[in-house]
Amino acid sequence: MPELLPQKSNTNQEQKAQAKFGLFASNSLLKQLTSMAVNLLFPPRCAGCGQIDTYWCGACQHEIAEMRLSEPIEPKYPLQGVTATAQHIGKIREAVQALKYGNVPELAKPLGEKLSTCLKQQDWIIDMIVPVPLHTKRLAERGYNQAQLLAEQVASIMGIGCQANALDRIRETQSQVTISGAERLENIKDAFVANSQFVNGRSILVIDDVYTTGSTMSACGEALHSAGATTVYGLTVTAAGHSITHKKEIVDEYHHSRA
To answer: What is the pTM (predicted TM-score) of this model?
Structure first.
């Protein structure tokens, strides 16, 4: 009868790996259970109409699909063209606010679909899609850059490359929502720098959530042109008028409507 070899004992490295895997599995299960409990107690609600168990219902998606921009936007230097999918009103305004201030990143998908539909109607030749960047401090506060989520959705649908690192916001700026048009220009001046490695010799589409005075888009365009971009276009979900509610009132209004 052959002699049985003694089983090797686990090394410290193997034991640590097993312990780490067990901890990972426990944490993963805990996160799943926590998520299920939160959804049970506080189910998602449609940002447009409040329907339970969905972040955005089919009826609201159909409604925003019919919304259009009332008049064309005159591009500001150095953009060669700029447009938005609709006015900053109604259900689409609710969706943008929920994405931006309500911690509902899921809304990037339906809004990205509307952006893509709008882009298909333009005669622009695009080599790369670039989102308007957030400052690192604001990104940490919000947890995500809504413009990047939108840009990635459009890039996926259109089959165009998206490069979030092509533009960088090199200094913290005051929120554009709370200041006048003249103050916006000064506030955003020299706030962006572009990476020539990504944009040199290319036609760039800059994507953001809301277009108001165009100062942010223009500042991005200047940075991109300085880095060698041949053409810069701008596309946003909505276009707002020059008279706009202050940011705090927008946030308060959104949370009040969700109560």
So the answer is: 0.76
